[in-house]
Amino acid sequence: MSTVIATRGLAKQYGRVHAVDGIDLDVRAGDVYGFLGANGSGKTTTVRMLLGLVLPTRGEIDLLGERMPRAGRRVLPRVGALIESPAAYGHLSGRENLALLDAAGPGGGRRDRRRRITEVLDQVGLGGVGRRPVKAYSLGMRQRLGLAGALLRRPELLVLDEPTNGLDPQGISEIRELLLDLHRGGTTVFLSSHLLAEVEQLCSRVGVLDRGRLVLQDDLAALTAPTGATVVRTPEPGQVRAVLDGRVAAVDGERVVVRGGDPAEVNALLVRAGVPVTGLAADRPTLEEVVLAAAATSADRVERER
Ligand code: ATP
Could you tell me if the CB of 19 is within 6 A of ligand 1? Predict the structure, then answer.
């Protein structure tokens, strides 16, 4: 699978602040890559470096197989980007704003351009309001207009910094559907977010930034793979302990974690003993648990290095 974004030892220092501290990103064609991190962890700085808007202090960036920022002129037209709140002229309509963006692009007939603008406005759900001035748009509508701008040139790669910022739940789910649609059409998506749930629902691959360091990077399916234990839900955790002597790894209220990954076998034993069971499933870590564990391990390492 070809690599779409690759960085090696990428770092940015502002005075004494190590905003980004030597990260090796690996984003492959066809990924929906979720770049997670708390506020201030360095996500925006990284995205800006990827797009040639900020120069790295150290390290290398390959974007669509070419070295950045040197190859920016060639590569950036193939990348759609949305960073922070998108700028737009308030007195102009959504259509007019997109036409201005498009005018900076490479050719195409007027009619084709107009058709493309109509297409992207429909795609982001602004079809009905494209002629209204942007100053009358809500925050969510502005965000979607920014996304429409990013889509104009049918990019191979979309780079989005917190794309659902300021959107209501309805807007968030519409953007999610849109991104999944684009992904099905072959677009690779790289999005930064501080929302675990958003990344968990949308992404196939995850990178986690913690104080400028990449503490985790893997496929979501691998990160949340079954642990080999079974989770039993029961109002009688004590009875489970008695029946499955020595196999109970943890009890948390009505949730009992049993060693042994065959839920059917565990169920048979409990039913035979007359233990009431209200739920049964293979144990999987949530993305939140995985991220917290990775951050804690990294903090330990930083502590030891001091
Ligand atoms: P947020 O989600 O709040 O935008 P982030 O993860 O995108 O956070 P960055 O904006 O990349 O984080 O900031 C990382 C660190 O670098 C912060 O400590 C920030 O204060 C610092 N920083 C970012 N840009 C600059 C700058 N231009 N000058 C000085 N410090 C900066």
Answer: yes
Q: Who's near 42: CB < 8 A, 6+ residues apart? A: 12, 19, 20, 21, 209, 211, 212
Residue 24 has which token pair?
């090796």
Nearest atom of ligand 1 to the alpha carbon of 41: 6
Q: Cβ(233)–Cβ(277) under 8 Å?
A: yes
**pLDDT score, position 20:** 97
**For residue 169, is the peptide bond before it cis, meaning its omega torsion is within 30 degrees of 0?**
no
Atom of ligand 1 nearest to the CA of 37: 6
DSSP E strands, the chain: 3-14, 17-23, 26-28, 32-37, 58-63, 66-68, 79-82, 157-161, 188-193, 205-210, 213-219, 229-233, 248-252, 255-259, 279-282
Each residue of 164-202: pLDDT tens digit? 887 888 888 888 888 999 999 999 999 999 888 889 989
Domain extents in the chain: 3-223, 230-282
Residue nearest to atom 28 of ligand 1 (CA): 14
User: Is 86 a pocket residue for ligand 1 (Cβ < 6 Å)?
Assistant: no
Mutational pocket test of ligand 1: of 12, 17, 198, the residue with most ligand atoms within 8 Å of the beta carbon: 17
Amino acid at 155: P
- Domain 3-223 falls in which CATH fold? Rossmann fold (3.40.50)
Assign residue 79 a region (left: φ > 0; alpha: ψ between -120 and 50; beta: otherwise): beta
Give residue-wise pLDDT tens across range 244-270. 888 999 999 999 999 987 888 899 999
